[in-house]
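Changelog-adjacent note: as of this version, every example in the card shows the full chain rather than a window. The one below runs 331 residues end to end.
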Amino acid sequence: MGKKTLSIGGATYDLFVRLPSDTVHECEETASFALPLGAKIAVDQLIETCGGGASNTSTGLSRLGCDACFEGIVSSDQWGEKIMETLKKEGVNTECITVVENEVSSFSIILSGTSGERVILYESGTNAHLHDSTFDKEMLSQMDWVYLNHIQADSCEIQDDIVEMLANDDSPKLTWNPGGCQIDAGLSPSNNSELLAHTDLLLLNKEEALKFTKTSSIEEAIAKLIGAGVANVAVTDGARGVAASDGNKIYRCPVVSGVEILDTTGAGDAFGTGMTWGLLTGLSLPDALKTGSINAASVVGAIGAQTALLTDIEITSRLQTIDLTVSCDSL
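Full-length structure tokens:
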């Protein structure tokens, strides 16, 4: 078996609704879907898939050859059954999943445009029940790498359990993609500052990074996060690519060119999965940026967060053939 990984967070059943191009309304500041009240609109396509941060990353790591485990909450309803069925089909270890009765599993309706535009209608459902009484911290200690995805506000208390386990000798490495409750709180609270000090890879988009650090540029945000003890930090900036640092230099990696974007759902999870796998297998930070970018480029070319996640063979092959030049500057 490959390296043992544990993805902590949410799983969601996703229904993609592909809307016709004439429903997209553009103005100077933003674009939106225009759905007239009372109208009956024929959609182009309906696609049912699974998503959610931890579901995406555990599936992605399993495809990349890891012995991947998912830890989260689902209901015994039809959506929960489909999530469990999909994870098992992908070879993900589901023994850490807590199944609850008489509730609704997390569910999303994703309105998707022809050029990658999207609006997500989201019901958190059972994802809100991940807390210390349902969190198996002993399983965490058996892993090579842990991936903490976005979690609900009521779940933030498990950070203390994670810090406790990461402080032990021979503890696993950690990828952290903070959720809204952690980002809103900032760097100062002890549960955030202590977790940052144990984080081997921190993943944020530009808006999250600036809000989390209360800074005004990616470079300032990276410097502040490295100062907080993070070993490696990566900040994505949409079509402008990603900036990352190991505390010595700032590396910049562009997006893969020539990709037709069909749907951006799950692109961040795909990037984080590819980058985590790169570091886990011993790649340098610049090359791990490339594996993350390559995985994300594959995902945005298909509908659904998990449809086009790459295998280790595919990502290794594309790493050799896709031209991605990573530049670097002093921090």
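Structural remarks: The chain has one domain: 4-25+42-330.
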